[in-house]
Amino acid sequence: MARRELGPAGLAVVQAVEPWTRSGRVRVACSGGPDSLALAAAVAHLAGRDASLALRAEALTVDHGLQAGSARVADDVARRLDDLGLPTRVAAVTVDRADPAGLEAAARTARYAALSTGLVDGDVVLLGHTLDDQAETVLLGLARGSGTRSLAGMAPGVALASGALLVRPLLGLRRATTADACAEWGLPAWHDPQNLECRFARVRVRERVMPVLEAELGPGVAEALARTAELARADADELDAVAARVVGSRDGTPQELPVPSLSGLPEAIGGRVLRRWLIGLGVPEPSFGHVRAVRALVTDWHGQAGVDLPGGIRIVRERGVLRQGPRDDG
Question: Which residues bind ATP (predicted)?
Fold first, then answer.
């Protein structure tokens, strides 16, 4: 990438990224698509002007092994980033195709595990999600009926167990801006063929639903959905904090929850308390139906035997408390 004055799109990307490059190791997740390529190019541009960042910045491209030729694509991306002056390595991962959450979720789990390896407190991983990705995420959450947390979309930053952060600095920029930035820098982007496969719900939202919404409701739908995510996240964060204080225990998840302490809670808090408690007991991703059934042990008690949940867990009400009981599978 030649050293020259930044164009308007490249400048917008660099300005969004720069605050996250001031300390710690900076690892860029790059698939070679326009969004992550613009992200990596912005870090390379900043590293070219900052010797300290040049020593701390790197890129990682993940080979999921889900498509023919994926290793070659990953190697090509790594070479392109190396040519920009951004040291890059390829991480080959194994995706659990039998994951009940689906192939996309399994690939994301494997990818994030690779991206977070070896990081410490103060390091950051930069992800290339844009405002368009956020809008699509909100629509998918709305379609699932998943509540405020799902409508909150993707968080701008997520803390890892190591103390490092996963950061999405481009959530305020449109996808067209990253494409324009790549064009300004003369960088040919790779386009994942799976992004055109309408068997994936996200692709259908991107290719079919969003254009109809923009055509029928007028421009600005994506921005409105992203704004909804920001507002919903503030509400969800506050409600989750209240629920955490109710469930919180110095020794981890309490084994019992007193029914009287739950019966007086408003629905917005009570459901969150129970969901957090169930996850702590080992229930994988309890659904709305699961939480509602357990809440009925509090609000609609008529001697039920208990509620069977995923993970081999049964919740029963006995002597005025909710607790985990033995399953009756026979």
Answer: 31-36
Strand partners, 307: 315
pLDDT digits (tens, 9 = 90+) for 268-284: 899 999 998 998 898 88
> Which residues does the annotation place in the binding site for ATP?
31-36
Residue 7's SS3 state is coil
What would the two tokens of residue 112 be? 């994030």
**Which residues does the annotation place in the binding site?**
31-36
Which tens digits make up the pLDDT trace of 109-118?
889 888 999 9
Tokens standing for residue 150: 């799902």
Which CATH fold topology does 248-325 show? 3.30.465
Q: Please check whether the two domains, 8-131+146-197 and 248-325, share a CATH topology.
A: no
* Residues whose CB is less than 8 angstroms from the CB of residue 311 and which lie 6 or more positions away in sequence, other chains included: 282, 283, 284
- As a CATH number, domain 8-131+146-197 is 3.40.50.620
Beta strand segments in the chain, E: 26-29, 57-63, 88-92, 124-126, 157-159, 165-167, 256-258, 307-309, 313-318, 321-325
Q: What's the CA gap between 85 and 217, in Å, rounded?
A: 44
